[in-house]
Amino acid sequence: SSVPVLTIDGPSGSGKGTISRLVAARQGWHYLDSGALYRAVGVAAGWADLDLADPAALVRCTFDTRIDFQEDPVSRELRILVNDMDATDELRTETAGAAASAIAAIPEVRAALKDRQRAFRQAPGLVADGRDMGTVIFPDAPYKVFLTASADERAERRYKQLKDKGVSVNLDGLLREILARDARDANRAVAPLRPAEDAVRIDTTGLGIETVVERVLALLPSR
Ligand code: C5P
Out of 50, 114, 127, 205, which could bridge 24 as a Cys pair, Cβ 3.0 to 4.6 Å? Predict the structure, then answer.
């Protein structure tokens, strides 16, 4: 495809989501939150009371789960529907993240979600955020970024994010969960979290959102 893609990969709390959304809005490109797909399957599996240790059931669940992204025309906020139910808030919880990470280690689940992700590549361009956007889903993307930040800072960002949403969490517990999830994402056999060779790496520790957005936008053709 000749439609340009900017991939933004990195661990949880590295700022991928926030940066990707802002860059997409300013550039006028579409946005894919690939983690939301894995989270959606995790949440649907929870609703169906499936066993996270039963890969066959989870693969079936992946095929059966409807996932729709809807942008509120007024607030521009993104709502995510799972099987026609608004699951936006539930998707953000660390429980959903942990379920997503377990499910994301199953090769058939990843394969089943491949085409759904590639379908987001539409003119005039796409910003895709995740773990394997630059390595597996869009290896031919002309623009690739890998975001990192210290584990402490990432835990703190997630903590604030969840607190703002009214979810009560414990910072130490969150840090431990994030480190466990990162280790699983980085060490799995399929599509492990790692920078693409041609990715520009940005360590966002101590950097403000605007600074990172500008550094990323500087890589793209001006509109
Ligand atoms: O980015 P987010 O925290 O929403 O992703 C949730 C989980 O989904 C990650 O911990 C990872 O295991 C999985 N994921 C993935 N590949 C992606 C995006 C997310 O394996 N492209």
Answer: 127
